[in-house]
From TrEMBL, chain A:
Residues 148-453 form the FAD/NAD(P)-binding domain. Residues 1-12 have a biased composition (Polar residues). SUPFAM superfamilies: alpha-helical ferredoxin, Nucleotide-binding domain. This is Glutamate synthase (NADPH), homotetrameric.
Automatic annotation (TrEMBL), chain B:
GO terms for molecular function: 2 iron, 2 sulfur cluster binding; flavin adenine dinucleotide binding; metal ion binding; oxidoreductase activity. Gene3D superfamilies: Nucleotide-binding domain of ferredoxin-NADP reductase (FNR) module, Translation factors. This is Ferredoxin-NADP+ reductase subunit alpha. Its cofactor is [2Fe-2S] cluster. [2Fe-2S] cluster binds at C222, C225, C237. One of its GO terms (biological process) is pyrimidine nucleotide biosynthetic process. It comes from Dissulfurispira thermophila.
């Protein structure tokens, strides 16, 4: 290898093969295809193996990043996944959906001068390799502690908490409201970004280490937290922020207007893309508008395209710079032909015979930064215009679901209905009851929910071993 | 998995009574609540009102009218068969208290979920009048059950084959003119509940209706069941299903119920082609 080539290698990250945009926009197969062992080893060789690795600080669950990358570089993939698994229960998930550019990769020393190491792609590689070769995943279970812990919700927070506690020897029962475990990983994130077989594989590992999952169990209805606490030694609440927000504008209840939660649940959990082989229908729009600029909005708009929409667009009230979605997701959406109506805000939805016909919007301009630090959008007077559409999907976030808090005595909530906890431990106002994830923080990311589940697991373990 | 313990054809050829083993649900369920079922791996999730609850036996009962694909497919399920998923109890229970004189209005197979409500109201010492309506006398269900619980039973049929010739609101108006009521509760098709609410409005009598929106999860997560009540968007699954009938925007509800009418028809036709079945067996 010449010096030039080697310099080139260290400056540029190894690209990950992807399905061609023109092809993938009409299928639900995964967009990114993953590294081959050769690609992974080549990329792993870029890591500087810093003595004081800042990448670990950027990871909410502190995966030993340089160590696992070193193992990949040496071709020891089993060792790599073993190292990741000491910290993370869901590497195949995180390697796909984590916003690495804001976390580990943001801190990468190499990133100061060149492209950061593709930590996410490498994590995904190690996890996929282990899944295909069925190794590195064995968890040794210590002697049972005799303690029983209930976990409410089987999303990323609950699954992580369950994994951490089960491998300490506690008996875990997860209560899930839907018919499948996985929470947002199965109902929210689409197949093309996170194949459901991967989630099923990770959940299966939990079953193998003795975790029991009870589906169709709505806590607060079928069983209350107070009843759970009579039977279990402790409880973790990770129910997520499942209550879609609407804008409160005219026409929101017309046929053809969805919350992103409903649209994605129909498509993902209920497999409406395979209607009528699967029984759940979904309205396939010819022209679809998704309102919002987050990851959920990108998931919805790209799902709409794949279902067969001729045109699909994002309507977002600020500019591309302020979009909360991952750059990669925005880029993928753009490649697939999604249109972006930026600095645009819906004023009302106009219908005909009960069905959506168009969205009336107003152009926005950016003013002073608001509380979020982003420049706040201000409507431009007289700039109203109509966009003809037949499906509108509202993806402007979610709020706290009231079922569990309403049915639980003395559980302290903030004014928005989220559960108040000690930030370090996840301890709620009730002894033995812990909480974490979106039901505490409001809509956030998979990895932050996992971090909260992990923190709470540590605190629950300490609590149980000292009572 | 929930096993079917009993199945009866209660109205030829398409209305079935099912008693299902669901001990945990039966322990918590109250009149006015519902469950969401999914028949099999490819099935959709549909809400069904509770027609009876027996916590001692650990069973719940559902009345299913075979109208579309899922309900017709369910009608082919027999004793011993298992329903893959059953989730509940969902929604808020009907508010039961001592009201005084209560008029219950049931249209079609909407009479079934009124039955446990009637029993609870009776236990609280209410005087109960029930108005049961159907197109013709052969389509009436639960008449004997209701007679056993209610103080007065009024039957209406569109064709006059039994009781008063006309619709439920004909009888309701007469009843309200003759002697008043403290509350009216109606369960049935949205159009019927709309006209019941319009009938009671001039009398100023509180009218509770049970809304049957399209749902998926039933826990407030998808927002598909949203209805406009008193100008505000509410979720039928968590805020309801009972609402003040005078506040409901009926046109929005009725329109939203038609969202998938074409898809459902297509799916049903395709299913019928693949299945040879006799619904009345």
């Amino acid at each position: 290898m010449t010096e030039n080539n080697s310099k080139e290698t260290i400056l540029t990250r190894t690209p990950i093969p992807e399905q061609d945009p023109a092809k993938r926009r009409s299928n639900f197969d995964e967009v990114a295809l993953g590294y081959t062992p050769e690609m992974a080893m080549k990329e792993a060789a870029r890591c500087l193996q810093c003595k004081r690795p800042l990448c670990i600080d950027g990871c909410p669950i502190h995966i030993p990043i340089p160590q696992f990358i070193k193992a990949i570089k040496e071709g020891n993939f089993e060792k790599a996944i073993g190292l990741i698994k000491t910290a993370s229960f869901l590497p195949a998930v995180c390697g796909r959906v984590c916003p690495q550019e804001d976390q580990c990769e943001k801190n990468c020393t190499l990133g100061k001068k060149a492209e950061p190491v593709a930590i996410g792609y490498l994590e995904r590689f190690a996890a996929d390799y282990a899944m295909q070769n069925r190794n590195g995943a064995d968890v040794k279970i210590p002697k049972p502690t005799g303690k029983k812990i209930a976990i409410v919700g089987s999303g990323p927070a609950g699954l992580t908490c369950a994994y951490e506690l089960a491998r300490l020897g506690h008996k875990i029962t997860i209560f899930e409201a839907l018919h499948d475990a996985g929470g947002v990983l199965v109902y929210g994130i689409p197949e093309f970004r996170l194949p459901k077989r991967i989630v099923a594989h990770e959940i299966n590992l939990l079953n193998e280490i003795g975790v029991e999952i009870v589906t169709n169990a709505v806590v607060g209805k079928l069983i209350t937290i107070d009843e759970i606490m009579e039977e279990f030694n402790a409880c973790f609440i990770g129910t997520g922020a499942g209550l879609p927000k609407f804008m409160g504008i005219e026409g929101e209840n017309l046929n053809g207007v969805y919350s992103a939660n409903e649209f994605l649940t129909r498509a993902n959990l209920m497999k409406a893309y395979a209607f009528p082989e699967y029984d759940t229908p979904i309205k396939i729009g010819k022209r679809v508008a998704v309102i919002g600029g987050g990851n959920v909005a990108m998931d919805a708009v790209r799902t709409a395209l794949r279902l067969g929409a001729r045109e699909a667009m994002i309507i977002y009230r600020r500019s591309a710079n302020e979009m909360p979605a991952r750059k990669e997701e925005i880029h993928h959406a753009f490649e697939e032909g999604v249109q972006f109506e930026l600095l645009t805000s819906p004023v009302r939805i106009i219908g005909e015979d009960g069905w959506v016909k168009s969205v009336e919007c107003v152009r926005m301009e950016l003013g002073e930064p608001d509380k979020s630090g982003r420049r706040s959008p201000i409507a431009v007077k007289g700039s109203e215009f109509k966009i003809p559409v037949d499906v509108v999907i509202i993806a402007i976030g979610t709020g706290a679901n009231p079922i569990l808090p309403q049915s639980t005595r003395k559980l302290a909530l903030n004014k928005c209905g989220y559960i108040i906890v000690d930030e370090e431990t996840g301890q709620t106002s009730r002894e033995g009851i812990f909480a974490g994830g979106d039901i505490v923080t409001g809509s956030a990311t998979v990895i932050l929910a996992m971090g909260a589940g992990k923190k709470a697991a540590k605190a629950i373990h300490e609590y149980l071993m000292h009572i | 998995m929930a096993k079917i313990l009993e199945k009866r054809l209660i109205r030829y050829p398409d209305v079935f009574y099912y008693r299902i083993n669901a001990p945990l649900i039966s322990r918590k369920a109250k009149p006015g609540q519902f469950v969401i079922i999914r028949l099999h791996e490819r099935g959709e999730r549909i809400p069904l009102s509770l027609a009876d609850i027996n916590s001692e036996e650990g069973t719940i009962s559902l009345i299913v009218m075979a109208v579309g694909k899922t309900t017709t497919e369910m009608s082919t399920f027999n004793v011993g068969d298992e329903i893959l998923d059953i989730c509940g109890p969902l929604g808020q229970p009907t508010h039961i208290q001592k009201y005084g004189r209560v008029i219950l209005v049931g249209g079609g197979f909407g009479v079934a979920p009124l039955y446990p409500i009637a029993m609870s109201l009776k236990e609280m010492g209410n005087e109960i009048v029930v108005i049961m309506g159907a197109r013709s006398k052969d389509l009436l269900i639960y008449e004997n059950e209701m007679r056993a619980v209610c103080d007065k039973v009024l039957i209406t049929t569109d064709d006059g084959s039994k009781g008063i010739k006309g619709v439920v609101t004909t009888a309701l108006k007469q009843e309200l003119e003759q002697s008043s009521a403290n509350i009216v509760m109606a369960v049935g098709p949205a159009v019927m509940m709309k006209y019941v609410s319009e009938t009671t409005r001039p009398f100023g009598i509180k009218t509770v209706v049970s809304l049957n929106s399209i749902m998926i999860d039933g826990t407030g997560m998808c927002g598909g069941c949203r209805v406009s009540v008193g100008g505000k968007t509410r979720f039928a699954c968590t805020d309801g299903p009972d609402f003040d009938g005078h506040q409901v925007d009926w046109d929005i509800l009725i329109n939203r119920q038609k969202t998938y009418i074409n898809e459902e028809r297509g799916s049903f036709e395709a299913w019928k082609k693949r299945h040879v079945f006799a619904i009345c067996e």
